[in-house]
Here is the input.
Amino acid sequence: MARARVLIRPKEGILDPQGKAVERALPALGFEGIEHVRVGRMVELEAEDPERLAELCEKLLANPLIEDYEIQTL
Amino acid sequence: MIWGVLQFPGSCDERDALHACTLAHGEARLIWHEDRDLGGVDAVVVPGGFSYGDYLRAGAIARFSPAMESVAEFAAAGGPVLGICNGFQVLCEAGLLPGALLLNQSMRFACRQVELIATPRDAFWSPGGPKSNERDDGSGERLSIPAKHGEGRYYAPDEVLDELEAKGQVAYRYAPGHNFNGSARDVAGVRNEAGNVVGLMPHPEHAVDPLTGSTDGLRVFEAVAAAGTPA
Here is the structure.
């Protein structure tokens, strides 16, 4: 089994209210100078056939209309 | 006519949908998500709720259920399909309707009465009212029905939105001042190109009895019934 990590993030240009909310909270905690916060999702998995991971991402793990994904084999 | 209302683990509006269907016309029955056989129904409603816990993305897992495979075939054959809220999300994830529903701009789950403007067209059924040639010029019939969701911000790329507008595929818009979730171009519901599959975020099935303040939702079900009644 190959271990892999899939990173899924909102496509550029799509409003990410979660990222905005995190960004707005930072100054109150004393973190200045941080911008363009985007919140995505990470999926860890083990696959017999890592070749098929892209298809898996396209069909289920990500919605290609609104999300980009990146597969990292570990 | 016979309506089929899908039921997933996590559905919560299927009972109101059954009630609305029978008030509109004929009889209605539940279709369990594991049933491949739709039982010869004349119209399908994919109801609201939180199918499969909305894990991953709302509607992402429900679209792979055996019943949804049959609904896709039913829709391809021209059968009328109405998706409400989570049902709309499921139909988008299944590729039966264009676009996607994102987290509300406010980040909050919201429950409120909203005004919609229906944009009927003459092909197939016209949500919100009788068939007409009315175009999407904001003069369409108005409906007051409730909305309740956390992920209802309609999104499609600009070029897709242009195409939907050009082809009359925007079925409902939020009336001015009512787009509470930040949907692109005030879109509250869309139809497929053929016009037999329609999805919307607000809930017509919760507005079918004077007791709840509005019966406007019934018109949506009556329009589906007009399309689904066997000749």
